[in-house]
Amino acid sequence: MARNKETLLLLLDVGPSMHSVLPEVEKVCSLLVEKKLIHSKYDEVGVIIFGTEETQNELTREVGGYQHVVVLRDTKVVDGDLVEALHQLPRGTCDGDFLDAIIVGMDILIKKFGVTDKKKKRLCLMTNALCPIKDSIEGTKEDQVITIAEQMVKHGMGMESIVVRGRLSGNANKTIMEENDFLLNIFSQKTCAKLVYVESPTSLFGALRTRNISPVTIFRGDLELTSKMKIKVWVYKKTSEEKLPTLKKYSDKAPPTDKFATHEVKVDYEYRSVEDSSKAVPPEERIKGYRYGPQVVPIAPSEWDAVKFKPEKSVKLLGFTDASNIMRHYYMKDVNVLIADPGNTRAINAVSALAKAMKEKNKVAIVRCVWRNGQGSVVVGVLTPNVSDRDNSNTPDSFYFNVLPFAEDVREFQFPSFNNFPASWQPNEQQQEAADNLVKMLDLAPSGKEEALQPEFTPNPVLERFYRCLEVKSKHPDAAVPPLDETLKKITEPDPELLSQNKSVIDAFRRSFELKENPKLKKSTRRFLREKPSGLKEGEGDISAKPSGSKEGDSYGDISAQSLDSLNIGDLTTVQDFENMMSRRDGPEWIGKAIKDMKNRIFDMVENSFEGDNYPKALECLVALRKGCILEQEPKQFNDFLHHLCKFCQKNDLHSLCEFLASKELTLISKTEAIDS
Prior knowledge:
Rossmann fold; 7-stranded mixed barrel; 677 residues; 6-stranded mixed β-sheet; Ku70, Chain: A, domain 4; single chain; DNA recombination; ATP binding; 19 helices; alpha/beta
């Protein structure tokens, strides 16, 4: 029997005001049972519906009242029949009283488990809470709800209240709706109850907790601020990727009459010698090795065990830093939450004070973590304060923990800054306005509406489809894979209604950015296509790729076949040749060649200059080289060259060049222009 077995009672409003959303309620409730059949097959689930014409429950027979409440299915272990029953919920004709349904559900659980049984018991109410609640015989409705809440706590029951609103509440009686919201809020204050309001079918899918995962600590110990100052803390997982259930090998060779057959397949591996394939190699003759150059270095298990780093279990503070120094893209893995030991008042106060101080100073903590003894690795992470915003809140102050990368984990890909591109490459005012309107149109949180695709209310469509497919295959093995549910499509695709309503905005954005097809030519006929350098007139640049010393009449129309060595920067059109070579994208070596050739040309101009006659052209080339190095994120190439050029001038008594460059305000590439400077 499962240790975390749960008994769940679904309290479903099927009254007339809920008819429009009942198809979605059927889907989400049947999905809940499908998941339990995989992950929690010993759980028990019962179904109570209210808002029906008929009445069928034990309390009505015993004490009277509790009309229009039907126990559709008593609590028992989940099975396929329950999935079918939830696919076909009755449509009621009367207004439903959710308090009556809660009391009937509590009565079932109390009679089954009593006061002493501490098994997990949960009620799940799904309603729009738009219908009036009957007056209590004794006291007010508020008094009645408080009494019910006290009994829930006494018997260890939890409750989820999912209130489906949205378009349903448009014509509702506001007084009744506010009163019902007030009563439901009492449950969330007095008990371990969760109250959620949803407006869309997608949010409904995510609001119901379909899988019960018990919180398990990954660390219990000290947060060491110093060797003499420690705080008792617990660490839990806050987010963790939910993966598809593991597929197992299955055999149908077991006799059909064997009811206890597991049908599992056992896999054994056997290693054989390369020289003699008929000879098996026993474990004591096998050893693992690592490639080191051309050779393989064998390492015995005992040696590898000695090499392993074996730190002691601990969480140690290394220091604090500004929150702005930790970029969002540094976060590597699942998020953990670090809280004070729940039973330690001094630890709770210490964690709260530390979290509030860090938030006030806008600081984060860098910590070194080893979650368990024998762990083969150490992680360095960041603690971000999570301070409760509400006064007298039941939520304790805590920290979120994220793993930070080491140097070996960081991937550096340098791209030129858009700010350094020419003005002709920047978006104009019309284009920027079109982009702004597109972003506003696709805002997921428009004013007055529920934010769409909130992570806590958005189910994984891949998992949901898998569970649906598994349920279909369990009854019809040859059935085709069912299509993706329309509700789940809204997660994976843009809203068609929103796109059609804002077609003019989309068309304006499309017109603002002209798109041209880039045909993919065959390899044998591929030509290097490049834009004409900015500033050239019609007809210029045609011979910019000519090697120096070439003659008129030579053909340079097809340069795709020209080798790296045969193409150089010429004397006549030095800047244009340099720009053309820098713009080539048929090989990474062209950038380095262009920079190297340009440096050589500049040196030639300086050395062959007479009384500074080549200085203006050398300056023009230096400006082009500087711009190219900024665009390609090669600031070191230019800065080192300019230093070298100045030293060369000083050594050869060419001070006039340095003065000329200074007068033209030619400077080194700064860090604001290129981050690597």
